[in-house]
Amino acid sequence: MNLEEQGLAFTGIVNNEPIFAAGMKPIWTGVAECWLLATAKVWNHPLLVAKAIKKDFARIAKEHGLWRVQTAVRSNFKQGLRFATWLGLEDEGVMKQYGFDRTDHNRYARIF
Predict the structure, then answer these.
(1) Per-residue CA distances from 62 to 18, 58, 88 (Å)
(2) 64 Cα distance to chain centroid
């Protein structure tokens, strides 16, 4: 519930079943943290999901006057790192022991 922001999130539905939700949580004016929650079924439709997220990602940022959108991706999650780059985010470096389980994460950000 604390991720819920009017107009800053969307859900991907395939065959009447939600398979992912994504959005942005403002940190302060102009800056937001992006997030993505997905089921294993996203791997059944990777191109469809990727295109939907990419399209809405930029639109939402522009509509809400965001100039910086950032996220953290687990450093050993190769598909996530590639996806962040494909979305136009740049790798800003490793955050050591950032995860709840003390795993390293990379900070990615996109400037609009």
Answers:
(1) 25, 6, 14
(2) 16
pLDDT of residue 108: 98
31 in Cβ contact with 25 (< 8 Å) = no
Tokens of 71: 């996220």
pLDDT score recorded for residue 7: 80
Q: Does residue 77 have a pLDDT over 80?
A: yes
Q: Which residue has the tokens 């990777």?
A: 46
Residue 37, helix vs strand vs coil: strand
Q: What is the pLDDT of residues 4-52, one digit of tens each?
A: 567 898 999 999 999 999 999 999 999 999 999 999 999 999 888 898 8
The side-by-side arrangement of strands in the sheet containing 17-28 is 9-14, 17-28, 31-38, 68-74, 105-111, 90-95
Q: Do residues 111 and 68 lie in contact, with contact meaning Cβ atoms separated by under 8 Å?
A: yes
Which residues, including other chains, have CB under 8 Å from residue 15's CB and lie 6 or more apart? none
User: Alpha helices, DSSP H only, in 1-112?
Assistant: 46-63, 78-86
Within a 13 Å sphere around the CA of 29, how many CA atoms are in the beta-carbon half?
Answer: 0
